[in-house]
Every structure is written in structure tokens, then in C-alpha cells.
Write a structure and sequence with these properties.
The chain is built from seven helices and two strands, in the order H-H-E-H-H-E-H-H-H. By secondary structure, it is mainly α. Strands 1-2 form a two-stranded antiparallel sheet. Helix 1 packs antiparallel against helix 7. It is globular and about 40 Å long. About 15% of the residues are buried.
Length: about 130
């Protein structure tokens, strides 16, 4: 069963990389959030009004260190269907009286599928 799980995680990882390449894996040009958000919509990464989450490096940290050109990129961004899930799963915060998801919930629901696939793939190979 272990090898089957690794194979499935590898398939998800390859699919995620292929999708990113087909949509445009790296944004060129302006890296302001306004320009990036517009680009995400054009490329099909995010619908109008859909919350976009910086899962690994926050916008505040990127601005503080002047690295928006590295962090306002598809690898660091994921969408949520609504603001409640964005705040609760992405940030682990309480939102409109609903509890945050906690660290495990943030990992499961607040990180892209390719990250989870990579963790399973690398972790499984280390155990094997």
C-alpha cells in the first residue's frame, strides 16, 4: 500500500507542475498586488472576487523585505471559495464567530495540493 500512496502523490505532483506550466508558472512584469491579482484572473488561477492566499510568505513579509517579485507568484498563492475559509483555513483565525482550523487544518486546507503531494512523496521515500 505504501508504494501506491507514493505513486498517487507523484501523480498529483506531476499534474500540479504541468498545470502551472500550462497556465504560466512565473509572472513577469509588475509585481504589485493589483497587477498580480489581475494577471491571476487572466491566466485562470483566480476568479473575480475569489480570495487569494499567500500560503508560504505573507504579503506583509514580502513588502517588508522587498521580495514581492518572488512571492507574488503562483507557487506562493492559492485560492479559497470564500473569505471565511480563507481566514479560518489559510490563517487559522476565528472569523465571524467560527473557529480557526488550527495548525493541522492550516496544513491540510491552507496549502496547495502540490505541497502536500511533495511532503508525502519525500516523506514516503525517506521512510522507504
Amino acid at each position: 500500500m505504501g508504494n501506491g500512496v507514493l505513486a498517487v502523490s507523484d501523480i498529483f505532483l506531476v499534474k500540479a507542475v504541468g498545470t502551472a506550466i500550462s497556465k504560466g508558472a512565473w509572472k513577469l512584469g509588475s509585481h504589485t498586488w493589483k497587477a498580480t491579482r489581475k494577471w491571476l484572473g487572466k491566466k485562470g488561477y483566480a476568479k473575480t472576487g475569489e480570495p487569494v492566499h499567500h500560503w508560504a510568505v505573507s504579503q506583509a513579509t514580502a513588502k517588508k523585505y522587498g521580495v514581492e517579485n518572488l512571492t507574488n507568484q503562483p507557487w506562493n498563492l492559492m485560492t479559497f471559495p470564500n473569505q471565511s475559509l480563507h481566514m479560518r483555513a489559510g490563517h487559522g483565525m476565528q472569523y465571524l464567530g467560527q473557529p480557526g482550523y488550527g495548525l493541522l487544518g492550516q496544513f491540510l486546507f491552507g496549502t496547495p495540493a502540490w505541497v502536500k503531494a511533495a511532503v508525502i512523496s519525500v516523506g514516503g521515500r525517506a521512510i522507504n
